[in-house]
Design goal:
With 236 residues, the protein is α/β, with parallel strands linked by helices. 25% of the residues lie in helices and 19% in strands.
Length: 236
């Protein structure tokens, strides 16, 4: 697992990102990688889905896959997709946040409005307890250039009173993603990190579409993404 991501210094990882950034795919892929061992030493692992305002591409929709990998899934009161677009959190959402022996990834809302859900869990998200990541896709209109990405990060921080710790570069074109797509995204993400004075946490690539060897020279931390969430009918 060494080389995928920097050393983890907190038990809780909060993942934010605009709609279409690949935030939830990143959260699920990181969870699956961590479940295979080597990324943390905690005896338990969980994914908390706080993205309750978005009815599409929800991490809880892969509950069975995650639970089969030993990952507890928390968040929405609904365990199925029936009525899943109704924003209601389960009472058990705080369980992994309270459990000091549970490595926890939090899939937060997709914009500043959705991310406000984080506020009610603020005591768990102090800088010594949580790392806040912003996933950025420069092929989305809302984050189409560095300035717009800066404005997005500022909006997240204003809405949540949390400081984004680091940036995750995930510039993609869905199934049209190529090595050149990743390279362009890396260059823009590096500029964003310089502008915001944030660390570049990792660069993501879809391992089913891009050969790691073709981008191995751009950055030390390259994280392979699965295609867990995208329904095949969207590609037809």
């Amino acid at each position: 697992m060494n080389g995928y991501i920097p050393t983890l210094n907190t038990r809780v990882i909060i993942v934010t990102g605009h709609y279409g950034s690949g935030k939830t795919e990143f959260a699920v892929s990181l969870s699956m990688l961590a479940a295979r061992g080597g990324l943390h030493d905690y005896p338990r692992q969980a994914l908390v889905d706080l993205d309750i305002t978005n009815p599409y591409f929800r991490s809880r929709d892969r509950r069975e896959t995650l639970e089969n990998a030993g990952i507890g899934v928390y968040g929405s009161v609904y365990k199925t997709t029936v009525n899943a677009e109704i924003p209601a959190l389960s009472a058990n959402t705080r369980i992994p946040l309270e459990d000091k022996d549970c490595f926890t990834i939090v899939d937060a809302g997709g914009n500043d409005t959705g991310a406000r859900v984080l506020n009610q869990f603020g005591k768990y998200f102090t800088p010594d307890k949580a790392t806040v990541l912003a996933v950025v896709n420069f092929n989305r209109f809302e984050t189409r250039d560095v300035q717009n990405a800066v404005e997005y990060i500022d909006a997240i921080e204003r809405a949540t009173n949390l400081r984004v710790t680091a940036i995750v570069g995930n510039t993609h074109l869905l199934r049209e993603t190529t090595a050149d797509t990743i390279r362009r995204g890396y260059a823009l993400t590096a500029d964003l990190c310089a502008e915001t004075k944030r660390a570049l946490w990792c660069i993501c690539y879809p391992e089913a579409l891009v050969d790691r060897a073709d981008i191995a020279d751009i950055y030390d931390h390259l994280l392979p993404l699965g295609l867990y969430l995208r329904p095949s009918w969207l590609d037809k």
